[in-house]
Structure to design on (259 residues):
C-alpha cells in the first residue's frame, strides 16, 4: 500500500512540475521532428536528439528516439498521464466558415479535447492490457513505464455538434492528428524515449456520413494503431524480470570477488 501511495504522489509531482512547459515543448519538438522528414539537417547530428536520445532507424512512426542505455526489458506495467490535446491552428475559424448553424465555440472545443483525451487513455489501456499484456496502473514503481502523451494539430473534418435540423455531411476522411509521446522511467523521472507520428483518417472505398459515431470510430482506429506499435516495441524488449534472482546474482558476484 505504501508503494502505491508514494508512487501515485510521484506521478502527480512529475505531471505538475512540467505542466507549464509541456504544451510548448510538445508543439515545438513535434514541429521540428515532423519537418525532419523533409530536411534531414534539422538536428545538429541527425542521430542524436537535444537531450541525448538516439534515433531509431526504420521505426514504425515518423520519428522515434530512445535512450540507448535504458533497459526496457524491466517494464511490465505502464502508467499513462492525461493527454494534452490541441487543435491545429485556426481550426475553429475554418470549421465555422462552412457552418450556418452549430458553430464551434470555446466550450465546444474544451469538451472535444476532453473526449479525445478520455478516448485515448481508454484505447491505450485496452490494447496494452489485452491478452495478458502490460497492466496499466496509476503509480510509480521499478517496473512501471510512464507515458506522457499529447495529441496535437488535431483536425476534425466535421465535428458533430448535435444540433437540431442539421443537414447530412459526407466525408472521405474524419480528420488527422499528430501523436507526440514521451516515455519515462517512472521512479527516476528520466526520459528514455520519444516518438512523433502524424496520421490521417481514411475511410476506404466510400464516403461516410459525418457524425459522432464515425468520428469516434476513426479516432479509435488511429489510437489503436499507435497503441499496438508501442506494445510491439515493449514486447520485443521484454523479459521476465526477477529482482530476487538479480539480488542473488549480485551476492554471488560479491562473494566471488572477495575470494
Amino acid at each position: 500500500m505504501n508503494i502505491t501511495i508514494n508512487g501515485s504522489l510521484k506521478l502527480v509531482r512529475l505531471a505538475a512540475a512540467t505542466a507549464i512547459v509541456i504544451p510548448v515543448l510538445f508543439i515545438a519538438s513535434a514541429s521540428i521532428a515532423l519537418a525532419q522528414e523533409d530536411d534531414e539537417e534539422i538536428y545538429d547530428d541527425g542521430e542524436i536528439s537535444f537531450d541525448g536520445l538516439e534515433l531509431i532507424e526504420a521505426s514504425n512512426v515518423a520519428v522515434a528516439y530512445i535512450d540507448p542505455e535504458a533497459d526496457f526489458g524491466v517494464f511490465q506495467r505502464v502508467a499513462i498521464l492525461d493527454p494534452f490535446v490541441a487543435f491545429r491552428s485556426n481550426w475553429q475559424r475554418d470549421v465555422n466558415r462552412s457552418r450556418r448553424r452549430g458553430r464551434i465555440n470555446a466550450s465546444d472545443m474544451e469538451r472535444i479535447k476532453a473526449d479525445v483525451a478520455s478516448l485515448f487513455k481508454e484505447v491505450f489501456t485496452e490494447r496494452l492490457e489485452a491478452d495478458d499484456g502490460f497492466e496499466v496502473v496509476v503509480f510509480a514503481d521499478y517496473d512501471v513505464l510512464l507515458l506522457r502523451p499529447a495529441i496535437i494539430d488535431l483536425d476534425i473534418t466535421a465535428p458533430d455538434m448535435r444540433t437540431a435540423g442539421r443537414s447530412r455531411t459526407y466525408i472521405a476522411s474524419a480528420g488527422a492528428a499528430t501523436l507526440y509521446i514521451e516515455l519515462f522511467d517512472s521512479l527516476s523521472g528520466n526520459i528514455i524515449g520519444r516518438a512523433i507520428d502524424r496520421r490521417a483518417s481514411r475511410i476506404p472505398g466510400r464516403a461516410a456520413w459525418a457524425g459522432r459515431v464515425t468520428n469516434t470510430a476513426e479516432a479509435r482506429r488511429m489510437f489503436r494503431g499507435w497503441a499496438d506499435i508501442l506494445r510491439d516495441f515493449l514486447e520485443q524488449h521484454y523479459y521476465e524480470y526477477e529482482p530476487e534472482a538479480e539480488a542473488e546474482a549480485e551476492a554471488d558476484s560479491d562473494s566471488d570477488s572477495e575470494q
